[in-house]
Structure prediction request, 551 residues.
Amino acid sequence: MRLNSLILSAMTEETEKTELALNVFGLSMDQLQGQLTSLEPDSKVRITGASEAMSGLLAGLDLSLELAIQGNVGQFAFMASRRTVIDVFGNAGGSCGHSLQSGSILVRGESGNYLAAYALGGYIAVHGRAGDYAAYGLSGADILVRSRCGDGAGAQMRSGTLVLGNGCGEQLGQGMTGGTIYVRGEVGSVAEGVQAGRLKDSDTIRLSLMLVRAGIKTTFEKFQVFRARGDRG
Amino acid sequence: MSFLDELVFVPAKMNPLSPSARPSSASVVFGPRGGVRPVQAQAPWIVGQTLPPQTGSQWVDLCTRLSQRGLVLDCPADALEKVPVSSIPRRLFQQRVNSALDMPNLQSADIVEVTCQSASRAVWGWPPEIESSSNLSNWLSAIRRVVGSQTPIGLGLNVGCDDQAIQSACDAEADFLAIHAGTSIELLADTLGRIRALRNQSTNNLTIIVRTSSKSIEHLLKILALGASAVTIDGYLSDLWQATGSSMSSFLGTRLPTTTTAGPCPIAERMDSIQQKLSELLASTASNNLNDLGQSLRALTPRASQIAALPMLGASST
Prediction:
């Protein structure tokens, strides 16, 4: 059985929780999800052996777990996942967090195009750069990109929050009908139908919370806010 | 006049009957590929795009009849809230591209069709997030994991889509294709012909649903003969719901359904009728199953012959 390749060992760390180690090299997606399903709720798991060749990693996962993934993850990682707290110590391929339901994803490296497309809930933060069309069709989740974001950020956005910590490319918010985009830094261009506005009290509270959560030490005054024309937030 | 009116079924030649012949089958199997629990519908009829607001008080009856006959209903889960559990038929759910995955509906459906049409703009195309059709397979695999590996997942394409689109859908290992024909019946014959050709080149016996608004039993049967594995019968049933609307009475401004009386159920009668026609057709053409029906179809006019790529009546079949 291929599960022989699985290394599942308990390592007691200084924290109060026990962290499990799981090497996913050679495992099928079904085997991996089966292993995670067998764990106690709220377990902490360190996953090694993942690669960007694995598309759809942990898609549809609905488990209360904390996962620390060493290495890069491929396209459509964590699609529609729910409840799981995920920390990726590497880069993410395209459409990471597609249709995310809840939980959180932290990508320490860079992200491909269509980060958090259609995400409905939860929180996604990317420390490095994000490709084009970040938060495409966003439908309720909170997204933060610390470094520069590509073109079409927030395109077709319906609701939710997108925070860009270091500017973005062309056509910000193209076709957006709802939600809020906060940008610090240079904006290549703003799409038609999107307007810059003043930060209101509700904006400063929301933005501050997201910045604190991402560990960014800056003041919200440096941010501009963008909404669909006619949307007063 | 539709070219379908210019097609005709020819009865089977008189041959000695096979002593070991089995009853002909009109059932349809929906993947999943490599799965252990295929969804089998007893007949090639699917009700889609018919919802309680149209059917009124007949909704539960419709669901019950579909469930009893092992047929598939295309609807969101919340449309079945007031239907007794024992009367819930197998449910197909359509997920549109360019929108968030509808998890409650996807995970509770027996069959999932991912329709490659934008929900907001009604434009056909692959989901933008795949960026290239070569990624369609990865995208569909991820959705398969989200939905559950035992649920058949198909792709909905527009009628007249090109060979590359059909090939991409096949390469992505869709369990079935749903061709949205609407009223473009001429294009449907061409599309089905090309799918049939692709199917013949491989061992893949892909299930094909045709979504049509046709009201005619004869047209529906001919669409099956042209290569569809199942067809939607909403058009065929639609006048039943119009009758429902007219049978509502008004009392002090409140619309009340008329008292249901014991007697033949119009939905059951209608379904029995189409099933009877299909059985008679399979028998008269000596077809063992739906795949064999096409061999008995002939064109009455050169135009129909050209559109459907079928021999003229009187010409020998190739």
